[in-house]
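re: ur question from earlier - yeah i can do the single chain one, its not a big deal. heres the input i used so u can compare w yours
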Amino acid sequence: MRWMAALLLLLSAAPASAETSPFLKPTDPVPGHPGLTWLDLVRQAVPSLAKTDDGDIEGSLKTPPPRHIGGASFEGDPPDPVTLGDIEVKHILAGGQKRMVVMADLGPDPDRVQSQTLLLLFDEGPNPKLLDVVDVGLDKDTVFDDPQHLSLGPGDDALVTVSEHDDADLAYDGRAVVFVRGDRFRLIADFYAITETNCGWRQDQTPRFTTRPDPGSPYLALDIAVTHKIVHLPDDDCGDPIPKAVTRTYEALYRWDAKLGRFTTTSTALKRLDKLNGMGP
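and the output i got, formated as tokens:
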């Protein structure tokens, strides 16, 4: 069975996983742009970034700092200095134009719970130009919520970011759904989902994003549904009361409102979910 031996040899030589990390290093080259690194691009937003004697890349944000995609309640004095970490990149369409979105991790914020994470919008020209920048840290450890890359129509895409915060047996995930209009980042929706394991029960909140036609609108309508499920576990020596098993869906349909110039919803479902999770008024 020579073919079997050859197959086993190939399998033994292959990596354990075909998946590759989405994270890039600041000094990595930008594909298709000789002599340009991701650090060069991020410096368009934070020009003071430079290597320290310890090998870190530190700098200070401009004054005032970039606006926060979640609004004024998330804003405050940024850390100083900030330290550039991993980078993620997405290529999208916005208004029919090719755009590059770079997520730059600038480290934790000692005065606020969320990370200092910037989302930078560039054109796709020979010398990428910074078009807009926002802060998207809703909680700790902010990344793109792969594989979420939503089409809002033939010439427009939306992205989902997720900020993760694990605390013992409880995990909070703050998500922001973002798109680009007029070469500026715009928020469609933001909400929190939790995962929690307790003695005798577990709860999960799983989001789902789908689009549907919206006649007369330049964009598709976006449906966000979060399934909240509580299941019982075999543990029977807990002492504390166990909540009733339940499966419930919190759903909101977002449509483009031309008069207001933004996506809106008539549903209060995601606000009620945030209140349930202790993240809303």
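The CA atoms of residues 8 and 14 lie 10 Å apart. not sure if urs matches, ping me
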